[in-house]
């Protein structure tokens, strides 16, 4: 049976899902609030941890072949820009998706036609009411669309956690962001963002791989541009990164070692502040006064010019506020999948060891509504594209049942 399917997000998982579902005989429409693969464009200068073969599907490779394009090489780690150019753009250009990928079209919210959130609770009868999607174009124009099935693959990048303690915004955080002094994504100090960082004092906050990626670029910039200074603040202590023996991902291993080296004080290009959290930001004419709390009390940095808060991302749950979605109280991911990941230690450790959790973990109380891709992991960061490709096959199984 042909189903009308709306996919939110034209990134790796959204495009792969669209191709697979259209090939299976469904009627698919994809909505992307920005340009094609907009989130990937935000980190296009970054090299992926995983090689090409973990980021493509057989159907995707077949789409390239249909256009006379060579498959990407195995054993090579692409940048985000290369991923878009060599793979994601050809997927969107496949004749099966022509006229079905709508960029600069935001899905503002999703509900059920004629039914409120609190009605027909956990009832399969909700399936009889089509989904209603509020669409908003780049000019602010609005319209409705309807679908039998909705797949939310909108990701989490660009929806950052707050900078302050306890997950709350630091005092003055909003003002610093509005003043352009506070960034939440991974910048490109050696390229497009050089003028923002060269010769300036940058504070980097966070202890994930995004943070150490930023730090590596800034330390390289410090060797080229006089006056470039870097301070790094984390909630953790001396060794923020776990170094895995014989790590199969060389980029990850190199970053972990580099981060731990910086935290040990072995690199004079970076001043490290551990076991601390940001309390307040006060914007002045030419700097930001940063107040932070350490184990020995309150301290200040008076001459910070730019702050990069690589403190993680979280799902935008407002999008499906009017649907009956059961969310994990800790990660904000869909509950069944979150529970399966926790029981399988999927929320931590080596992400390469993870496998798909099976079709049933993608179900929610809202019939035919599925959260796929990085957003399905909530606030967790252990997602890999190969897992999203397995999720697509799980959705096909559910729709065929």
Descriptive report:
By secondary structure, the chain is α/β, with parallel strands linked by helices. The chain has 2 domains: 4-157 and 313-400, 3-Layer(bba) Sandwich (FAD/NAD(P)-binding domain); 165-309, 3-Layer(bba) Sandwich (FAD/NAD(P)-binding domain). It is built from 10 helices and 16 strands. The protein has a 5-stranded parallel beta sheet with strand order 3-2-1-7-16, covered by helices on one side. A 5-stranded parallel beta sheet has the order 8-15-9-10-11. It has a 3-stranded antiparallel beta sheet with strand order 4-5-6, with no helix packed on it. α7 (209-224) links the parallel β9 and β10. α1 (12-23) packs parallel to α10 (385-400) and α7 (209-224) packs across α8 (250-263). The N and C termini lie close together (11 Å).
Biggest sheet: strands side by side, in what order? Answer: 3-2-1-7-16
Structural class: alpha/beta
Residue-averaged pLDDT, rounded? Answer: 93
Name of the CATH homologous superfamily of the largest domain:
FAD/NAD(P)-binding domain
User: How many domains would you count in the coordinates?
Assistant: 2
Order of helices and strands: EHEHHHEEEEEHEHEHEHEEEEEHEH
Kindly estimate the percentage of residues that lie in beta strands according to DSSP.
15-25%
CATH class of the largest domain: Alpha Beta
- CATH third-level topology of the largest domain: FAD/NAD(P)-binding domain
Distance between the termini: 11 Å
Low-confidence stretches: none
> Please, how many helices?
10
């Amino acid at each position: 049976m042909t189903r009308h399917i709306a996919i939110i997000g034209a990134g790796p998982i959204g495009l792969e899902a669209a191709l697979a579902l259209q090939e299976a005989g469904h009627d698919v429409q994809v909505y992307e609030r920005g340009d094609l693969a907009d989130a990937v464009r935000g980190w296009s200068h970054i090299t992926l941890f995983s090689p090409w073969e973990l980021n493509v599907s057989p159907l995707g490779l077949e789409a390239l072949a249909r256009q006379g394009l060579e498959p990407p090489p195995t054993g090579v780690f692409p940048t985000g820009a290369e991923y878009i150019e060599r793979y994601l753009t050809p997927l969107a250009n496949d004749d099966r998706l022509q006229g079905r990928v709508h960029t600069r079209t935001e899905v503002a919210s999703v509900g059920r036609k004629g039914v409120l959130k609190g009605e027909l609770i956990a009832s399969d009868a909700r399936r009889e009411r089509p989904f209603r999607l509020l669409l908003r174009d780049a000019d602010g124009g609005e319209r409705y669309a309807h679908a039998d099935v909705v797949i939310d693959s909108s990701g989490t990048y660009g929806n950052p956690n707050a900078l302050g303690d306890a997950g709350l915004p630091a005092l003055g955080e909003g003002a610093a962001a509005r003043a352009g002094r506070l960034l939440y994504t991974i910048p490109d100090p050696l390229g497009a963002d050089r003028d923002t960082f060269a010769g300036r004092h940058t504070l980097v906050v966070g202890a994930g791989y995004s943070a150490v990626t930023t730090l590596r670029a800034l330390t390289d910039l410090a060797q080229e541009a006089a006056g470039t200074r870097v301070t790094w603040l984390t909630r953790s202590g001396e060794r923020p990164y776990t170094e895995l023996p014989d790590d199969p991902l060389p980029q990850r291993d190199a970053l972990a070692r580099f981060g731990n080296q910086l935290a040990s004080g072995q690199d004079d290009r970076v001043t490290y502040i551990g076991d601390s959290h940001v309390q307040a930001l006060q914007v002045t004419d030419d700097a930001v006064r940063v107040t932070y709390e350490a184990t020995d009390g309150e301290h200040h940095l008076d001459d910070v010019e730019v702050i990069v808060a690589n403190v993680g991302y979280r799902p935008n749950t407002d999008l499906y506020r009017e649907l009956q979605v059961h969310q994990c109280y800790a990660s904000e991911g869909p509950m069944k999948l979150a529970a399966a990941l926790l029981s399988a230690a999927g929320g931590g450790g080596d992400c390469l060891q993870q496998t798909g959790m099976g079709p049933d973990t993608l179900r929610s109380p809202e019939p035919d509504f599925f959260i796929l891709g990085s957003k399905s992991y909530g606030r967790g960061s252990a997602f890999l594209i190969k897992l999203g490709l397995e999720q697509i096959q799980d959705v096909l199984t559910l729709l065929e049942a």
